[in-house]
Structures are given as structure tokens and as C-alpha cells.
Amino acid sequence: MPAKGDTWDRERAALRTTAQRSNTPCWICRQPIDWNAAPRTPRSFSADHVTPTSLGGDPLRRANLKPAHYGCNSSRGNTTRGQFPNSRKW
Fold first, then answer.
1. What's a single GO MF annotation on this record (predicted)?
2. Of all helices (H) and strands (E), which one includes residue 6?
3. Cβ(80)–Cβ(52) below 8 Å
4. What are the phi and psi torsion angles at 60 (to 5°)?
């Protein structure tokens, strides 16, 4: 569950600004983020916790936040990137 309040809003906005300026892709699937997509749509921006807060990740530590698609972030849930399955078996 994301942190609440002004601090979360500032951290999320700072991550979005930095990622958008450098055109950083989704850290989960490595595809471009649609910066103009409506919020909470699959290809839109979301701030993802690298180590999920439910597993002890700091919800407000900038080093624990990475840009992701809303859809990728939602699908990953509270797993770590290594636990997240590939979209297909290679």
C-alpha cells in the first residue's frame, strides 16, 4: 500500500518529473511509458516500490521507487522483480 500524504505526493511527483525528462522506460518490462495516458490506465506512469512495503521496503525512500507502467506495477503486486514471472516461457 502506498504511503499517504504530502511526502508521498512529493516523492511520486519528483520521480515522474525525473523519469519523464530522461524518458526512462518502465523498470519492469523496459517498454516506454505513455506520459499522456490517463491515470490508472495500463500504460500510464506509476511509482513502484522496488522492495514492496509489505516486505519491509521503505515507502518514502527515493532509492526504493522506480517508474513503472500502472499495469506492470499492478500485475507485479507485492513480489520482488526476481519473483515476477515472465509473460511467456522462453
1. endonuclease activity
2. helix 6-21
3. yes
4. -115, 0
DSSP assignment of 25-68 equals PPTTT-PPP-TTSPTTSTTSEEEEESS-GGGT--TT-GGGEEEE
C-alpha cell at 8: 508521498
What's at 52, amino acid-wise? P
Whole-angstrom Cα Rg for the chain? 13
Question: How does pLDDT run across 25-77, given as a tens digit for each residue?
Answer: 999 999 999 999 999 999 999 999 998 888 888 888 889 999 999 999 999 87
Q: How many CB atoms are closer than 10 A to CB 71?
A: 17
C-alpha to C-alpha distance for 57 and 65, rounded to whole angstroms: 10
Which grid cell is 54?
Answer: 509489505
CB distance 18 to 35 below 8 Å: no
